[in-house]
Specification:
It is built from nine helices and two strands. Helix content is 53%, strand content 6%. The protein is mainly alpha-helical and 224 residues long.
């Protein structure tokens, strides 16, 4: 007499099903069918997530330094353009954001074309001649290893300029799983731990200086 097996379909979704069945039926399936277990999706390693969080600090830090450098150098139009963006920030710290840098190198606003293009050129000059000096002279970054991490980030910012859409994928987390087994990677992990354990880096220096280029705020808002 042929054995009778029972099963019940509990749920169907997107071509898959959850089934409740007799253990004897499961034994038959395992015996006669080659079933490949579904691989568990790997999570992004903690070290990669932490590096991603550090990357989020890079653009605000260097754009803030860029704004102060433009002021010191007397680049009035560039300084005014950046302060117009900065003035629109509603957060207490008035942080620059990656979106500000994307917009700077994005579509040209006809109303501020000359200023926008000049700001682009000065940003390139800043990365090439001054960004590393700003890191080295920053008293808030006391650890030399941390300074080195910021200096390495400058190369990443410069590399983005060669892409068709600069800074569009700047914060993308690598899909390939990375380990921290090597001494070099462990050293970088230690540096990142030190950065997040202390708030010694003053990334944003809110300015109290009255903005003489307030008209740019209107022009910039049209670009949103």
């Amino acid at each position: 007499m042929q054995e009778i097996y029972t099963y019940q379909i509990l749920k169907k979704c997107n071509g898959k099903a959850v089934i409740q069945m007799d253990e004897s039926l499961l034994d038959v399936i395992n015996t006669h069918l080659k079933i490949k277990p579904q691989q568990k999706q790997r999570e992004v390693p903690y070290s990669v997530k932490k590096l991603h969080n550090f990357q989020r600090r890079i653009v605000p830090f260097f754009m803030n330094q860029f704004m102060h450098w433009a002021e010191e150098m007397g680049y009035k139009q560039v300084d005014g353009y950046l302060r117009a963006i900065h003035k629109k920030k509603t957060s207490k710290q008035q942080k620059f954001e990656l979106g500000d840098l994307k917009k700077l190198f994005g579509a040209i606003n006809p109303r501020t074309k000359i200023i926008q293009m000049e700001t682009q050129n000065k940003w390139i000059d800043f990365l090439s001649t001054q960004a590393d000096i700003c890191v080295l002279l920053n008293n808030k970054i006391k650890d030399q290893s941390t300074k080195q991490l910021y200096i390495q980030a400058i190369q990443n910012l410069k590399a983005e300029l060669k892409k068709e859409v600069p800074y569009d994928k700047f914060l993308s987390v690598p899909k390939k799983e990375e380990s921290i087994d090597s001494p070099e990677e462990e050293s970088q992990e230690q540096i990142l731990n030190e950065i997040f354990a202390s708030e010694e880096v003053e990334e944003y220096a809110p300015t109290n200086k009255e903005d003489p280029y307030s008209y740019l705020s209107c022009a910039y808002s049209k670009f949103d």
